[in-house]
Amino acid sequence: MKAHLHTSWRHIPDEARGMAAALGNFDGVHLGHAHLLHTLHTARPDLGLAVVTFEPHPRELFRPQDPPFRLTLAEERLAALSALGVRHVFQIPFDAAFSAMTAERFVTGVLDEGLGLKHVACGADFAFGHRRGGNAAFLAERAEELGIGMTTVPALADKGGPYSSTRIRRLLQDGYPERAAEELGRPWAIRGVVQHGDKRGRLLGFPTANVPLGRHLEPARGVYAVTVRLPGGQAWPGVANIGRRPTINDGQESRLEVHLLDFEGDLYGQTLSVALHTLLREERRFDGLDALKAQIAEDAATARTYLDRLAWAGA
């Protein structure tokens, strides 16, 4: 069941108050986040499970010059949290005014008075308030005074260290979507609206849907075996290129171009979710369009074989 989304901490309906809420950015909604939510639910199974998060990510406000880095945008995050049993998502607009709010005001005004939370949970490194003036210890102290329960959850870790969004971003940038999927608990996907391109793929015999990366992290450039989820929920095998297409132009903007295997239909204007399974090859330049066309055919065949094996293994 899809979680109820609240895009303000003010005027929360009575049925959404009195929750047990996990606090954080939840970018990627990975296994570490799932561990946080499971621990919270185990501590207070009598309360509805909720999340308090922020949009945009604070880093997008404070460092707008940084390259895009998001693993999940708001809609994807909501879907992933819903799948983990979250009933309410309090998505607080993170703007300049909110960033100036003191830690004290965040606890008393937002968590207590605004949302009416009964219990909160966070990681040991959670920091909040103006200039990160509050931490888990401060939150525990003030929560106790306000009659709010508090659980500080140690990070889920393996031999490589704690699970983190940063670690998953690095795996994707290094070309390891399979390992990123293990830490996310699902394949990493880029969701976006199909835009008109230059129709070059159609001329090459492989029509593609062009999905802008937007605020998503740019993973390693190259060709991937993918699964495309259509608006109606149907999953379709495909092969995708992420990069700047060095053979046919030197465009400065990276893009995702996905060819759906054996698909016929018009996808313009529709929202697709493109899940990356494996990097088949890195981006490279070819001598001409004939060589590129031959390579695309080979890529499509390789992707088909890989995805058939994947489907068989999961059967």
Structure description:
Helix content is 32%, strand content 26%. The chain has helices at residues 31-43, 58-62, 74-83, 96-99, 103-114, 136-146, 165-173, 177-184, 200-203, 289-314, and strands at residues 4-6, 20-23, 49-55, 88-93, 119-123, 127-128, 134-135, 149-153, 157-158, 161-162, 189-193, 209-211, 222-229, 235-243, 255-260, 271-282. The chain is built from 10 helices and 16 strands. A 6-stranded parallel beta sheet has the order 1-4-3-2-5-8, sandwiched between helices. A 6-stranded antiparallel beta sheet has the order 11-16-13-14-15-12. The protein has 315 residues and is an alpha/beta fold. The chain has 2 domains: 4-158, Rossmann fold, CATH 3.40.50.620; 186-314, Beta Barrel (Elongation Factor Tu (Ef-tu), domain 3), CATH 2.40.30.30.
Contiguous helical run count: 10
Spatial order of strands in the largest sheet? 1-4-3-2-5-8
**What oligomeric state is this?**
single chain
Kindly report the CATH topology of the largest domain.
Answer: Rossmann fold
Integer tally of domains: 2
* Mean pLDDT figure: 93
Q: Label the structural class.
A: alpha/beta
Distance between the termini: 25 Å
Rg over alpha carbons: 22 Å
- Work out the number of β strands: 16
> CATH first level of the largest domain: which class?
Alpha Beta
- What's the order of the H and E elements? EEHEHHEHHEEEHEEEHHEHEEEEEH
Shape: elongated
Architecture of the largest domain in CATH?
A: 3-Layer(aba) Sandwich
- Describe the sheet with the most strands: 6 strands, parallel
EC number: 2.7.1.26, 2.7.7.2
Enzyme class: transferase
Pathway: Cofactor biosynthesis; FMN biosynthesis; FMN from riboflavin (ATP route): step 1/1; Cofactor biosynthesis; FAD biosynthesis; FAD from FMN: step 1/1
GO molecular function: ATP binding; FMN adenylyltransferase activity; riboflavin kinase activity
